[in-house]
């Protein structure tokens, strides 16, 4: 498939719909969002180019500005990079963290005070435009079937949405269902998964089973 074809929005969107809805994807939240079209999907030229990340930052700012934080509904922001290609998980992981570092450095807002900015802290969550996000990295070469998206992808899920699930008393049920589905799909759940507050969520972003000695490469610009 050539680059011109990859950039057709309907091709990109249909590829994600097939990945989430037509295949045995374990995440019931992702399925619900795609069925109800409660997501924003944008494509960018290059995850390694600051110009592309500047566009992503602008789009995230607009996404946060329009989001109704009083609603109980859920949404996701999906950033696709169809021109980037990876042959292994480490290469993707390196670019994921470099992209997040760049986004942080061009961000003009303070870190969300509801979460830690220390990537080693169990209460860390990534902050952009003053709001905390749980970031999910996906790419075709992931060892996790659930993360083998059609293109390299960064999914930005607002941290507040998970807190709403807890307030509603449904977080554990949703979590356990997703993990059971993932185990059925791959034989085991992703070993890096932990609940917020028990370990740094940075270990979960790339989808790779990181080593015990792994250190998150992210650094807050004011640290």
Tally of strands: 5
Count of distinct structural domains: 1
The portion of residues forming beta strands comes to 5-15%
Q: Helix and strand succession?
A: HHHEHEHEEEHH
Q: What fraction, in percent, of the residue positions are helical?
A: 25-40%
Mean pLDDT: 90
Distance between the termini: 44 Å
The count of helical stretches stands at: 7
**How many strands, which pairing sense, and closed or not: the largest β-sheet?**
5 strands, mixed
Low-confidence stretches: none
Q: What is the topology, as strand order, of the major beta sheet?
A: 1-2-5-4-3
Can you tell me the overall shape?
Answer: globular
State the secondary-structure class.
alpha+beta
């Amino acid at each position: 498939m050539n680059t011109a074809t990859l950039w057709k929005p309907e091709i990109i969107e249909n590829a994600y719909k097939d990945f989430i809805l037509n295949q045995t994807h374990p995440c019931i939240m992702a399925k619900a969002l795609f069925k109800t079209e409660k997501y924003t999907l944008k494509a960018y030229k290059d995850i390694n180019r600051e110009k592309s990340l500047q566009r992503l930052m602008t789009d995230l700012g607009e996404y946060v500005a329009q989001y109704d934080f009083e609603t109980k509904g859920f949404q996701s922001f999906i950033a696709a990079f169809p021109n980037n290609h990876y042959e292994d998980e480490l290469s993707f992981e390196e670019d994921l963290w470099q992209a997040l570092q760049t986004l942080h450095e061009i961000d003009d807002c303070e870190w969300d005070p509801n979460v830690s900015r220390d990537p080693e802290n169990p209460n860390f969550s990534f902050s952009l435009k003053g709001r905390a996000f749980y970031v999910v990295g996906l790419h075709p070469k992931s060892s996790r079937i659930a993360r083998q998206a059609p293109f390299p992808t960064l999914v930005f899920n607002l941290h507040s949405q998970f807190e709403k699930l807890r307030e509603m008393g449904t977080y554990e049920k949703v979590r356990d269902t997703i993990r059971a589905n993932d185990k059925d799909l791959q034989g085991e759940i992703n070993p890096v998964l932990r609940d917020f507050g028990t370990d740094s969520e940075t270990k979960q972003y790339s989808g790779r089973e990181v080593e015990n000695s792994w250190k998150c490469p992210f650094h807050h610009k004011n640290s």
